[in-house]
Task: structure prediction
Amino acid sequence: MTETITRRTALQYGGAALAGITLGELGRLHFAHVDEQAGMVRAATTERWAMSVCRECPAACGIHVRVVNGTPVKIDGNPKCPIARGRLCAKGQASVEALLDPDRLVGPAKRVGARGEGRWQPITWEAATALLVEQLHARGGRPGETLAVAAEERGPVADAWSAFWSAAGAQVAWTPAATASQLRSRFEAITGVAADPHFDVEHASFVLSAGAPLAETWLSPLWSQRSYGRFRRGNARSRGRLVQLDDRRSMTARKADEWIVVDTDRQPALVYGLMGVLLRESRIDPAASQGLAASLAEFERGVVARFTPDEVARLTGVPVVTILRLARDLIATPQPLVIVAADAEPELIDAVMSLNGLIGAFDRPGGVLAALPAIESAAPPGAAAGLGTPANIKPQLVALRDASALRSLSMMNETRAALKTAGFVVSFSPFLDEAAGAADLLMPAHTSLESWHAVVPAPAVPGQAIAIAAPVVAPRLDTQDLMAVLKTTATKAGGNLPAACPWESTQDLVSATLGRLATAHRGGPYATSYESDWIQQLERGGWWTSPVASRDDFPNAVLAAGGWADPFFEPGQIRRSLKDLGGPRFAPLPAAEQVVAAGAKRTAQFPLALRAFTPAVVNLLGSPNQPALFELLGQPEGAPWRRWVELNPETARDAGLEAGATVRITSEHGSVDASMVLVDGMSRDAVALSFVPSVPNGGRWAQMVGGDVRGLWPAGVDPSNVVAVRVSRA
Ligand code: SF4
Result:
């Protein structure tokens, strides 16, 4: 059905629903009734397919949406998308629920109770814009007093958001996602190349993973899973071997040939220990050792002296014989590669990059390559990738584009602290999520399937790409296009804002982007693997042209394919840089003891170290109210809709817990209950707890996942850190 709900109807239903600003059950019945009527009068079902972009994470995979009688009913992967090649993860498939969410916001509203109390008054868009302009005049403009936070994104829309808020005097911060951008600064420090690292897992012969969730949500998740599949499947060569260093039995640890249990904070010591073995036994890559000559000597002395196998075994609990075997196995294969979790501590990233240097992994197939800079991003080099954080800022005005800053484990406390003291908070999220819950003014933007898109996918495949799409369906509720809202606000606010906001709408911005790409004379619309390979061959041979026949056809061809890509990529940047530098700039070595962080202060009362992890099906960005994802939550452990806690069987026995028990996890600051999963081989002192954000006002399904694990951490400490706890029967 193509029926949109009118503003009047929305307010009518919203007035009877939760807090007066969502559709609620009456609205849902209205849609169902209209769907039913439409079905009865139609002689035949109309069906079409539309290309779009998944916006549930920064990977920006292409999607192919089946629309029946005007309603999206199924989402598949876009086979031409160079990242996913037709695949789609659970979050992508569930994203249709965001559009159909009966508890999403129906239109703009302002807070009437205390902040966070959840009492709202629906208002018109004119009134909402006037209120935002008033607050920009009253509180904005002074350096450090405005903060704009959005999930990590690159490309024209992100640039336009950034330009608007920069002109308003805001600090623009991006919520770091687990993408290559997070590794960029350490990669640049060691290699001298200002680019995101690209790990060629597919062509590696041996992958040593320092906590990287390779088979789950690493970097660009579907690219990562595709690479993992090809790496393990092998071809003419033998099947690739995977060794996983992990403090818990993650999905990747289960799939690995070998899982070595090492606490995350001790992994740098192990990686330096492996380097010590290679250096002591003169096993480093001969080609690499020539290039390293100038920078290696001091580094070698330090590593060999400080990270002896005995010392590393003492620090990590990994036996000496395992350390020796792992180092020798790694260098014995033709194309070894070491990978690392994107949110790892800098010491671990430094250690991993240095080890890649020693095994000759830079700039070779199955190694580490330097990704090309993102096309169609006006951000200065490094700005889009160097994700800002709102540290040490006490803003008067905060703009939240989505809930990411409040849902991400690694950034919540900074943002929450800023929100507490902020004079005014505006949220553009279409959902009644954490962002909306913390706001004074709600200006809900369209959901993804109702929006235009121009977004550069998180770095994954070699070459360059930009996902571009038109809306799949017309907006159903009284929401607005984000760029149009910024344009209206800029026009009314005056000052330097109108100049910073030249686009009338996101459609206008997308048209301009397509116009620029049409004259690039390179790459072309998203294409099959075969066609992409052909374009790459042509460009290698100096044949730079677009495969689209005419410039007039170009926009429609790109929109029909779901994006534009140029597959051309030639490695060599890292080796050239290292040659100029005389070898990698190895990071100063930490003392062996220093690489082991102090961790949580465990006591007799709280004797276990708790670390939270985010399951792959938890959506950190979109709707908090997706039953399909809750259904998958805990499925591997047989407990859907539940968070779970992982314990060593002996730890559970000591606490008097039998299999199947519900466990209460208690810290000095709070407690939560979770289903227990026993994991052989896990550290006896450790507890791993799945993080599922609790959003009490997020909707009927979000309400069912009660109790927030974030309450276990002291105020001011991010839940990405370890906290001391005890476990008992609930
Ligand atoms: S990996 Fe990210 S962008 Fe791709 S389908 Fe999954 S959630 Fe969407």
Summary: The CA atoms of residues 111 and 120 lie 5 Å apart. Residues 1-5, 15-19, 380-388 have pLDDT under 50 and may be disordered.
